[in-house]
Amino acid sequence: MAGFHGTVRLDERGRLVLPAEIRNRLGLKPGDELLVSEDEGGVLRVSGRLAAARALIGIADPSAGSAVDELRELRRQDAAGDNDDISGDVT
C-alpha cells in the first residue's frame, strides 16, 4: 500500500488536518488519539495507537513469534497431556 505524499497546512489555531484519504484508509474518526514524534532532522511522524503498539511489540523482540500463538500452543499441549492422563489405564 502506497503512503500519502502531499501538502497539508496548519490552521490559525495550529491544528493540522489530515486529508480525508488518510483518515478513511486508516479508519480514523473524530476523537481518535494519534501519536506524534519528531526525529533529529525535524521530521514529524504521526501514527495511530495500533501502529504504535505493533512497533513496541517489534522493539521487544522482532524475531519472536506471536505471544498469543505461543500461549495457544502451550494450552493445546497442556490440554493434550491432560486428556492422555484421563484416557490412560486406571489402576
Protein model, in words:
The protein is an alpha+beta fold and 91 residues long. It has one domain (20-87). Helices cover 44% and strands 11% of the residues. It has helices at 20-26, 49-60, 67-87; strands spanning 34-38, 44-48. A two-stranded antiparallel sheet has the order 1-2. The protein is elongated and about 65 Å long. The N and C termini lie far apart (62 Å). 0% of the residues are buried.
Distinctive features:
91 residues, alpha+beta, two-stranded antiparallel ribbon, 3 helices, 2 strands, 44% helix, 11% strand
Outline the secondary-structure elements.
Layout: H1 20-26, E1 34-38, E2 44-48, H2 49-60, H3 67-87
Antiparallel strand pairs: 1-2
The rounded Rg comes to 23 Å
Number of helical stretches of at least 4 residues: 3
pLDDT < 50 stretches: none
User: Considering DSSP H and I runs of 4 or more, what fraction of the residues is helical?
Assistant: 40-55%
Average predicted local confidence, pLDDT: 76
Total separate domains: 1
Distance between the termini: 62 Å
- Structure summary, number of beta strands: 2
Which term fits the overall shape? elongated
The SSE string, one letter per element, is HEEHH
Give, in spatial order, the strands making up the sheet with the most strands.
Answer: 1-2
Q: Summarize the main sheet.
A: 2 strands, antiparallel
Based on secondary structure, the structural category is alpha+beta
Strand content: 5-15%
